[in-house]
Amino acid sequence: MMTIKQIGVLGCARIVERALLQPVRQLQHLNVYAVAGRSGQRAAEYANQYGIARSFGSYEELLGCKEIDFVYIALSNELHQEWAIKALQYGKPVLVEKPVSLNTDELAKLMAVQSAVQLPVLEGLMVQHHPWQQELRRMVEERSYGCVTEVKSYIAVPFQDPQQLNYRSLPECGGGVFYDLGCYWLQFIQAVFGLDLEGFNAQSAFDGPNGCDWSFRAELNLAGGIRAELLTSFELPAGSRHTIEFERAAVTVEHFFRPSMGSYKLAIRIEHKGSGKTEKISFDAQNYFTNQLAFFSDIIDGNRDNIPLQDSLARIGLLEKLMQHARASIQVSHT
Question: What does the H/E/C string look like for 29-96?
Answer without folding.
Answer: CEEEEEEECCCHHHHHHHHHHHCCCEEECCHHHHHCCCCCCEEEECCCHHHHHHHHHHHHHCCCCEEE
